[in-house]
TrEMBL record:
Gene Ontology molecular function, alphabetical: ABC-type ferric iron transporter activity; ATP binding; ATP hydrolysis activity
PANTHER family, A to Z: ABC TRANSPORTER ATP-BINDING PROTEIN (PTHR43875:SF14), MALTODEXTRIN IMPORT ATP-BINDING PROTEIN MSMX (PTHR43875)
Keyword Iron-sulfur set for record: no
Organism: Jannaschia rubra
Its EC number(s): 3.6.3.-
Xref: InterPro entries: AAA+_ATPase, ABC_transporter-like_ATP-bd, ABC_transpr_FbpC, ABC_transpr_MalK/UgpC-like, Mo/tungstate-bd_C_term_dom, NA-bd_OB-fold, OB_MalK-like, P-loop_NTPase
Keyword Ribosomal protein set for record: no
Family: Belongs to the ABC transporter superfamily.
GO CC terms, sorted: ATP-binding cassette (ABC) transporter complex, substrate-binding subunit-containing
Keywords: ATP-binding, Cell membrane, Hydrolase, Membrane, Nucleotide-binding, Transport
Entry protein name: Trehalose import ATP-binding protein SugC
Gene3D superfamilies: 2.40.50.100, Nucleic acid-binding proteins (2.40.50.140), P-loop containing nucleotide triphosphate hydrolases (3.40.50.300)
Top-rank taxon: Bacteria
EC category: hydrolase
Length: 361
């Protein structure tokens, strides 16, 4: 287990980068705590795998350092970092049995046979392959092979970090849930530092203690699932986390009021910023109304998704989503929306503004 420090880290795949746009991974300075589980979350091409490969030693960064517990490992080979890494596509030895595949990293370290048998049996159960331990890996399905690859990473108990690069892509949905549960149990039992790369917000939010959201090669927010939901630090976080994502309204800010179209909204706190902003409100905090105060809106359609209803509205030419309870009646003459108190975030140049006096929430 290790504290992982990223010091002035950046990377470009170009031989002579000159501008920030030339960098696939823009400058990072972060300490990732020993024994915590992190998820690197973002859309394809945002830099997640580049960062993971730098941490693992598969890639040497263009600038900066990587430290494990204060020891500079920036140029150290993967074997010297004492990590286990599981990749998106399974890496297994077809001529070996499932048992031999799982035992391989332990035998390489000269572990006693009795301890190897104990760990392999435990991990075989965790990945649901205890009945297939003596079967050759050749001919197994892709998801079975990925479970072997995952198990080989989980079988070691002495690693500095466990790194997972979208390891559940080829796993069927039910088994994904089971394996995420087992990974969390592994983390609780042994306290490994874990870093899990995914573009799936459900995987990230259910797996990690802290989610590291990346956008355009930058880390835009590190936080708990609740923090990412309630206070997205960047508009991308608001858009990417949640289903549907956060609604954004172009507005003009004046103290504690925002002007959205012809309507004025009380923000509940004052802001020093003046001029154009965006007001962000999650669908869960949009209230439907008929007449009276509020922002003019036109009801377009209602989607019943079982647990709740998603109400689609048009507000000044922009689609806005609201979430209503399953049993809630949606008036056909809905023509206004309002915001739940305390549920508004304000953004300038895509970054969240802090109100005067700090956050009340």
């Amino acid at each position: 287990m290790a504290t992982i420090t990223l010091d002035n880290l950046a990377h470009s795949y170009l031989p002579d980068p000159k501008t920030p746009e030339d960098f696939a991974l823009k400058e990072l300075n972060h300490d990732w705590a020993d024994g915590e589980a992190y998820a690197l979350l973002g859309s394809s091409g945002c830099g997640k795998s580049t960062l993971l490969n730098i941490i693992s030693g598969l890639l040497i960064p263009s600038q900066g350092r990587v430290l494990f517990d204060g020891r500079d490992v920036t140029t150290a080979p993967t074997a010297d970092r004492n990590i286990a890494q599981v990749f998106q596509f399974p890496v297994v030895y077809d001529t070996m049995t499932v048992r031999e595949n799982l035992a391989f990293p332990l035998r390489n370290r000269g572990m006693e046979a009795e301890e190897i048998a104990r760990r392999v049996g435990r991990v075989g159960t965790m990945i649901g392959m205890e009945a297939e331990l003596d079967r050759k890996a050749r001919g197994l399905t892709a998801d079975a092979k990925q479970k072997i690859s995952l198990g080989r990473g989980m079988v070691r108990e002495d690693v500095n970090a466990l790194l997972f690069d979208e390891p559940l892509t080829v796993i069927d949905p039910h088994m994904k849930w089971e394996l995420r549960t087992q990974l969390k149990k592994l983390h609780r039992d042994f306290g490994h530092t874990m870093i899990y790369v995914t573009h799936d917000q459900t995987e990230a939010l259910t797996f990690a203690d802290k989610v590291v959201v990346m956008y355009d090669g930058r880390v835009v927010q590190i936080g708990t699932p609740q923090e990412l939901f309630e206070r997205p630090a960047h508009t991308f976080v608001g858009y990417f986390i949640g289903s549907p994502g956060m609604n954004l309204f172009d507005a003009t800010l004046d103290g504690r009021q925002a002007r959205i179209g012809d309507a004025t909204v009380d923000l509940g706190a004052a802001f020093r910023h003046r001029g154009p902003v965006q007001v962000g409100v999650r669908p869960e905090f949009i209230r439907l109304a008929t007449g009276g105060e509020g922002i003019p809106a036109r009801l377009r359609r209602v989607e019943d998704v079982g647990r709740h209803k998603i109400v689609r509205l048009n507000v000044g030419g922009t689609e806005v989503s609201a979430i209503a309870d399953e049993g809630e009646a949606i008036p056909a003459d809905t023509d206004r929306i309002r915001f739940a108190p305390g549920a508004v975030n304000v953004y300038a140049d895509a970054w969240r503004l802090t109100p005067e006096g700090g956050d009340a929430r």
